[in-house]
Amino acid sequence: MEQYRVKTLTAPVDWAVKVPGSKSITNRALLLAALSDGPVRLEGVLFSDDTRYFLQALRALGFDLLEDEKTKNVTVRGCGGLIPKKKAEIYVGSAGTAARFLTAMAGFSDGVYTVKASEQMKRRPMKPLFELLERAGAAVTYLEREGFLPVCIRGRDFGKTIGRDASAGMHPQRMELDISRSTQFLSALLLIGSMVKQGFSIHITSEKKDGSYIRITRKMLKEFGVTVGFDGENYTIGANTSCHRETYRIEPDLSAACYFYAAAALTGGTTVVQNVHYDNSQGDLKFLEVLEQMGCAVEDSETGICVRGPESGSLHGVTVDMNDFSDQALTLAAIAPFADSKVKIANIAHIRKQESDRLSVIVTELTKLGVSCEESADSVVIYPSMPHAGVVSTYEDHRAAMAFSLIGLRVEGIVIDNPGCCAKTFAQYFELLTELCMKKDEENVTV
């Protein structure tokens, strides 16, 4: 499907939806399972382009995997912090988590690995992680541009005897890291902490010290038996830690759920996303607070969190610092033109270096549809405007495709170019959207 024409609704939505598992949690769980002492059964796994690249990479590294896509389960036989194959080539596609996590794993290994990526991923920043790995004793050889993938990495323990006794008499590994451009660098290092037998301490040099995805990482590590200390500036993991877990259940993807919640806000309707509750660990939960500020009612129920949009979708303008849940910047931008006053999305400079320059994409695509916007280096202001029909370019960015489809629920003639880019995280999104828009009120749709 080269293009998707959004069906405009004539009535408020009344949707009950079940979304796939979280990409961020799936890839973290896959890595922790691979580093565990024995087999780990992962339940509720997301099967998407990004997670398939991660699975393929683990296979290329020699890990034993048993996948059941129908039941959304994967069993990974962990090797106690070691990579089975000591020389391999992996391909991470456009998956940022796979690129950062597996690169860190290779850097603290006792092998030699080539990490290749898509043209899109080759443009995304990796230098802070490469430099840290080199300071820790790994060797990084750039195969194209310095500071970017692809690379060949010789692990810091290459040629050494690895074991529990390797930490004897050794001081904890001390590192420094700037996480202002991406918290994935820190998450990557924390996740592979069990590979560093003498333990380590990471001093954060940037003004930003923490973030929602780092908190997810710390929570998951604790659930796998690894405690991460944090004193406000330094993250620490003790010596001789190990990962262990027999089964692990992956949360529904809150990033995906937010598109359906935004549809309720936009149409003055109701959306319940099954199994999403306030104990969800993902940072995008904050987007529900934004919807409340804009006039929505949000409440948890036995089934899942329910969002009720204001009557006729009459939303209020807001000013929001979205640094900590910036995956929803595009979603907010898509519903912003329908607010009764301006919407300012602030502190999001880092989204310029994601799958696309998302800040520029917001302004470019909304302007094409007749919406008045103002762009700065790290923010965008969107003024009340009624968009007109048009074709939305998606820049091979899954979030642009899903977010801008929301406009079509209120505006006739919105066409999404290259909807297939959603396969990165949510391959069935447009199929599900079609079913939801066509269904009778009493029907529920799941994927």
Largest sheet: 5 strands, mixed
Strand content: 15-25%
Q: For this structure, what is the CATH homologous superfamily of the largest domain?
A: Enolpyruvate transferase domain
CATH architecture of the largest domain: Alpha-beta prism
SS-derived structural category: alpha/beta
Total count of domains: 2
Radius of gyration: 22 Å
User: Overall 3D geometry?
Assistant: globular
Describe this structure in words.
- The chain has 447 residues and is an alpha/beta fold.
- The protein has 13 helices and 24 strands.
- It has helices at residues 23-35, 49-60, 96-107, 119-122, 127-136, 184-191, 212-223, 254-267, 286-293, 329-335, 358-368, 398-405, 429-438; strands spanning 3-5, 14-18, 39-43, 64-68, 73-77, 87-91, 112-116, 139-142, 151-154, 173-177, 200-204, 229-230, 234-237, 247-249, 270-273, 297-299, 306-308, 319-321, 343-346, 373-375, 380-382, 390-392, 414-417, 445-446.
- Helix 1 packs parallel to helix 7 and helix 10 packs parallel to helix 12 (398-405).
- The longest helix is centred in the middle third of the chain and has 14 residues, at 254-267.
- The protein is globular.
- The two termini are 19 Å apart.
- Residues 440-444 have low confidence and may be disordered.
